[in-house]
Structures are given as C-alpha cells and as structure tokens.
Amino acid sequence: MSEWINGEQMRMGFLYAAENLKKQKDLLNRLNVFPVADRDTGINMTRSVELTARSLPPDGTPAEILDEAYLQLLECAHGNSGTILTLFFEGFSTALPAESRISGRDLALAFQKGAQTAEAAVPHPMTGTILSVASQSAKAGISMLDLTEDAGLIFKRITDEAHAALLLTPFQNPILGRFQVIDSGAYGFCLVLDGFLQSFAPELSIQNYPEFTLPDMETISHEGTASTAEASPAELPQRYCTEFVLEFFPETDHTEFEHTMKSFGEYYLCAARDTLCKIHIHTNTPQQILKTAAAYGTIRSRKIDDMAMQISTTDIR
Fold this sequence. Notes:
Layout: E1 4-6, H1 7-23, H2 25-31, H3 41-55, H4 62-76, H5 79-95, E2 101-103, H6 104-121, H7 130-143, H8 151-172, H9 174-179, H10 184-200, H11 217-223, E3 240-248, H12 254-262, E4 265-273, E5 276-283, H13 286-293, E6 297-306, H14 307-313
Antiparallel strand pairs: 1-2, 3-5, 3-6, 4-5
C-alpha cells in the first residue's frame, strides 16, 4: 500500500493510463453514442493521454507533474471527452500542495477540486457522463477520510466508485438508455483512474474488465444521437467539431471573447492558463469561428471534424 504519493508515481500513472486507453481504444469508439455518435472517443482520449504521458519530465513533485500534464493537455487534447479531462486535471493540479510527496487527504481534496472544475466549465452539465462519474467518485474519496489517510486505499475507493457510477450512466442519460450502453467518455475516465491506481497501489489495481453491451449501429445510423436525438447524421444541429488553441493578444477582453465564441454553437468548452486557451465547440461555421478568434489572438493549432461524415462513413459493426 502507498500511504504517500510521489512525483514518479504520478508520472507513471499517466503512462499506465495511456496503455489502458490504447488497449480499449476500439471499444471506446464503439461505445461512443453521446453527445454525437462520431465514434472517435477512443481515438481522442488515447491520443490526448499518450502525448501527455510522453512529454512529462522525469523528475518533479506530484503538483509539478500534474501541472505539466495540464499544460500539455491544453495543447494536445482532442474531442469533448479529451477537453473535459483537461479541465479535470486543471483543478486537480492547482489543488495539490507543492510537496515532494502527498497524503491521501491531499489526493482526495485535489481530486474533488478536479471534478468541481470540470463540471463548472460545462455550460449545461448532464448526468450519465464523465462529470457525474468524477463527482460521485470524488465524494467517495472524501468520505474515506473518516477512516484513513492512506493514499493507496483512498484512490482505490475513488476508482471503485467511478466504475460503479459508470454502470449507472445508461439509467441517467436518456440517449445512453435508448441504446443501453455505458458512456464512452466516462469509461475512458475510469481507465485513466485505473492507470493511476496501478501506479499508486499495484496490489489493488483492476486486472479484468466486464463485457459491455455495444450499441446497434444500424439504429444509430438511421436515428442519430445529437442534441435532438431523432436527427439523422446529415441533420446534426451543429455539424463540425471545431477545436483550436489560441494565444491571446495582451489587450484581449477574455469575457467578451468567451461570450462571442459561445454564440457560434453548442458543447462549448474552454480550458485556459494565463494567455493560452483551448476551445472545443460544435458549430456549423468552423471557418467563421476561426476567423473571429484570430481577432483575439494567434491560433497555434486547429482541428475540424465533420461529424456527419464520421457517422456516415465509419463502419464498426
């Protein structure tokens, strides 16, 4: 058991998390029906965590490792789930003390801050997603403080509760319930937690995963799964998943920028640090939003996915 967690264990947690996501990448894609069945959750989460894990320094305190991970995720995270994961690590990293090792209490409180930060950043948070799984597992971690401050035991409790909350997602989200599947992004989040548990307390780590029901992709291809769940792929309310990293000009009014960006579509997410921000949004006018954003700063990277095309052309049956 690990009563304390050091920086090396935190770094290894990302490496194990990347391995877990890579192994389950195809399954995550197949489970992806919410918010849009574009079947790329596995690709996006795996790429986000793999690139982050490779970039981490060999040495540092837990807080320093997590802070560097957050900065890397700002640059490389993709998709709705990848951006929410970034927001989670924003809160997690800022709440850790600057010590060479952290206690179970430090871990539980920082995890709770991560869950709160991610939920606060989502304009209309829904249950049955990463957000509800993170929130429920954070509460379990806090409740363990009445019994122990052993970091390994506390994180085991957090991880177990995350998996229990994952199984409830089809009953909490009507779109998941329609197809009788767990939430793909929430499962990816559980796999990330499993990776950290492998590092923090390997003797307590999860070795085998249950079989999950897969969605009927023929039904999805006819019905769609967007905000208006009856929409076909060609009738998505907002067709393009648009993401970019922006470095603000010094004089930028950040409140005005955020208000302007939100007006372009739905599923808006923004993760930021100092002059750098990562934007994720579903929109019908990706080029217009990029042109508008360029008036507020320098666009360092961009990615536009045609979700209707992804739904129509990806055969995973």
